[in-house]
């Protein structure tokens, strides 16, 4: 730890926020960031130019009551820097939280890909993960109904690979041409900038009702997936079809998944709304405190693999980002584990300045012709230049690869590298043509795009295979448990009740009638819309490749029903014995509950009790005096038998 490291006491060890707390938090990326970390202990206060400051309390004036002098360079520097502290927030995914960690494969995937970070079970790769909401600004609440972002930056030995996904396996649109329209529609309405952090308004539902390709992801958003319990209990998906390429040049289509080890869980709508008011930082706090308590969030990387010869074996198009591949047809193979074991040291420097990009790939991984993915490859570069001030955003510490990088890109805003090569062009003889190209190879070779034949007329046209919009939303609906279906009905009913224009509501209900009659009838009844005979007799879509239900699409169809990762409230009264309480807390600890909140039914003579055997998962026990959500926190007081 650096000599200037800020320290504070937490639990059984002394450390600074985000500091190295266990040997496994050391990795090449964290070590490279150490040179950029700085505190302030035992150092004099200075200007940015290193001049020591004698008075940081008062401006330089002409007399004690006179005007402030323009020559006060200390004041000017301090105020000017303050005025420019903020950068443009992300247009979408502005609200987010991040963590460091590592990824390790379970076995070698060399038969599928020559990507080095997937080549061996012994390979450990540093990662940085950012979770986010989509619609709201940076100051919006965590528990709003929304899609969540799930972006992972792998610092591999061959360069950076960014897997930039969401907590749903599909997106709202098929073609990047419609992305600005979709975002404009879901964002706060332009005439009054309302609502913030939610989609319950006219412009969003107007767009949905006119673009049925949105319906599949809308179903996910209206379900419990739209209000996850925590980032730790949330699945992640790469959305698009990519390719894995092995050393022999053989390609396999792939869709990426993240499976939470803690299991899948959501809030209910009443909880989500109350938390928005009581603790708008609920998800951010949960992630941070879990890591600080060493209850590290873990995710398994899953792959759905489709041989190229099976590209057209489905009722849908693999290139359509509004369609998923049912796990009942192509099971997810779990191939590795990601552990998030360190919080950032500085929210702005690491979270806000992190630049994720779906175009950041490494040898052994390549793109497909997904039209949304193809547009993202341009958009992400463009937005990073705008948000981070120029083309050198890759030099910001959090974005730097851990492997060396050398090229002929020069200068630009915020250039930090000092290039000593006298030749800034290629070819050159002045520096013996260095840095040089690396030929493709099975290992540590230069990047080589998959060789495939591409031809066709220049047209602005969707493939007819993209033209079915209702079968997969119906599959999702039928795969839910009854309570999840009711929550979807409630979600649609709440959102559409905020839509002022009645014809927009009616169009949405008509679309729902093409998905499931009971769904449309239930939502319509809540909105005062009665289905017509024609709507009740719509021919509903056939099962997707014969699959009527897929339990993987439900949060609870295959749930284990355990307390792992949960916060459990324990209600106490005067008859509660210390022995019974200790046994209960030990059982919760064995079940890997994250926290236990002890709540006494009276405001006097209340004490927080917990088990001394609780070394890790129940170390933090919030105390509420007088009921749920009330009272101040107190110092831990163990029962006498446990002291």
From TrEMBL:
The entry's family comment says: Belongs to the catalase family. HPII subfamily.
GO BP annotations, alphabetical order: hydrogen peroxide catabolic process; response to oxidative stress
Q: Which cofactor does it need?
A: heme
Q: What does this protein do?
A: Decomposes hydrogen peroxide into water and oxygen; serves to protect cells from the toxic effects of hydrogen peroxide.
The record's keywords, sorted A to Z, are:
Heme, Hydrogen peroxide, Iron, Metal-binding, Oxidoreductase, Peroxidase
Crosslink 3'-histidyl-3-tyrosine (His-Tyr): position given as: 357-380
Residues involved in heme binding: 90, 130, 179, 376, 380, 387
- Which protein is depicted? Catalase
The coding gene here is: katE
> Residues in domain Catalase core?
46-434
Q: Which PANTHER family match?
A: CATALASE, CATALASE-B
UniProt xrefs under InterPro entries: Catalase (IPR018028), Catalase_AS (IPR024708), Catalase_clade2 (IPR024712), Catalase_clade2_helical (IPR043156), Catalase_core (IPR011614), Catalase_haem_BS (IPR002226), Catalase_immune_responsive (IPR010582), Catalase_sf (IPR020835)
Does the keyword field hold Ribosomal protein? no
Location of region: Disordered? 1-28, 624-643
So what does this thing catalyse?
Answer: 2 H2O2 = O2 + 2 H2O
Signal peptide residue numbers: none
């Amino acid at each position: 730890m650096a000599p200037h490291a800020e320290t504070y006491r937490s639990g059984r060890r002394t450390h600074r926020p985000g500091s190295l707390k266990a040997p496994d938090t050391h990795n090449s990326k964290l070590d490279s960031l150490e040179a950029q970390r700085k505190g302030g202990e035992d150092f004099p206060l200075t200007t940015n130019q290193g001049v020591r400051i004698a008075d940081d309390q008062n401006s330089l004036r002409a007399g004690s009551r006179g005007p402030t002098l323009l020559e006060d360079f200390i004041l000017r520097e301090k105020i000017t820097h303050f005025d420019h502290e903020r950068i443009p927030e992300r247009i979408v995914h502005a609200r987010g939280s991040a963590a460091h960690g590592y990824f390790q494969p379970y076995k070698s995937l060399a038969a599928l890909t020559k990507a080095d970070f997937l080549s061996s079970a012994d390979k450990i790769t540093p990662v940085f993960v950012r979770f986010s909401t989509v619609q709201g600004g940076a100051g919006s609440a965590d528990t709003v109904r929304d899609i969540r972002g799930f972006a992972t930056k792998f610092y591999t030995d061959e360069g950076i690979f960014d897997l930039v996904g969401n907590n749903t396996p599909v997106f709202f649109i098929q073609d990047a041409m419609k992305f600005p329209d979709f975002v404009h529609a879901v964002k706060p309405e332009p005439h009054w900038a309302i609502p913030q952090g939610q989609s319950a308004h006219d412009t969003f539902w107007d767009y949905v009702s006119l673009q049925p390709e949105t319906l599949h992801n809308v179903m996910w958003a209206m379900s419990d997936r739209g209000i996850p319990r925590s980032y730790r209990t949330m699945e992640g998906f790469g959305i698009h079809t990519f390719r894995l390429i092995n050393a022999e040049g053989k390609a396999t289509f792939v869709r990426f998944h993240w499976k939470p080890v803690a299991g899948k869980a959501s809030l209910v709508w009443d909880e989500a709304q109350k938390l928005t008011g009581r603790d708008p930082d609920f998800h951010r706090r949960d992630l941070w405190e879990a890591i600080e308590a060493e209850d590290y969030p873990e995710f398994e990387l899953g792959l759905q693999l489709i041989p190229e010869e099976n590209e057209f074996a489905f009722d849908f198009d693999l290139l359509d980002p509004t369609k998923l591949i049912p796990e009942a047809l192509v099971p997810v193979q779990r191939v590795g584990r990601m552990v998030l074991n360190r919080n950032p040291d500085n929210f702005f420097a690491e979270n806000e300045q992190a630049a994720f990009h779906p175009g950041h790939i490494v040898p052994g991984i390549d793109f497909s012709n997904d039209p949304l993915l193809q547009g993202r490859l341009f958009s992400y570069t463009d937005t990073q230049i705008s948000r981070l001030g120029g083309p050198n955003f890759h030099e910001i510490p959090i974005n730097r690869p851990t492997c060396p990088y050398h090229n002929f890109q020069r200068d630009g805003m915020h250039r930090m590298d000092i290039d000593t090569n006298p030749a800034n062009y290629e070819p050159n003889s002045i520096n013996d043509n260095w840095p040089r190209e690396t030929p493709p190879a099975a290992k540590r070779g230069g990047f080589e795009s998959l060789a495939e034949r591409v031809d066709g007329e220049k047209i602005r046209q969707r493939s007819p295979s993209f033209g079915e919009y209702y079968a997969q939303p119906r599959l999702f609906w039928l795969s839910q448990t009854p309570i999840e279906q009711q929550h979807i009905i409630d979600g649609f009913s709440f959102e559409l009740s905020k839509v002022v224009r009645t014809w927009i509501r009616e169009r949405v209900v008509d679309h729902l009638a093409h998905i499931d009659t009971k769904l449309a009838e239930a939502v319509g009844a809540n909105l005062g819309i009665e289905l017509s005979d024609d709507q009740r007799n719509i021919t509903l879509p056939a099962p997707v490749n014969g699959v009527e239900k897929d339990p993987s699409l439900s949060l609870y169809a295959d749930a284990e029903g355990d307390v792992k990762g949960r916060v459990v409230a324990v209600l106490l009264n005067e008859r509660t014995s210390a022995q019974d309480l200790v046994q209960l807390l030990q059982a919760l600890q064995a079940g890997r509950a994250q926290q236990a909140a002890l709540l006494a039914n009276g405001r006097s003579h209340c004490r927080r009790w917990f088990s001394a055997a609780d070394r890790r998962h129940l170390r933090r026990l919030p105390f509420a005096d007088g009921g749920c959500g009330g009272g101040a926190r107190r110092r831990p007081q163990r029962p006498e038998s446990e002291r």
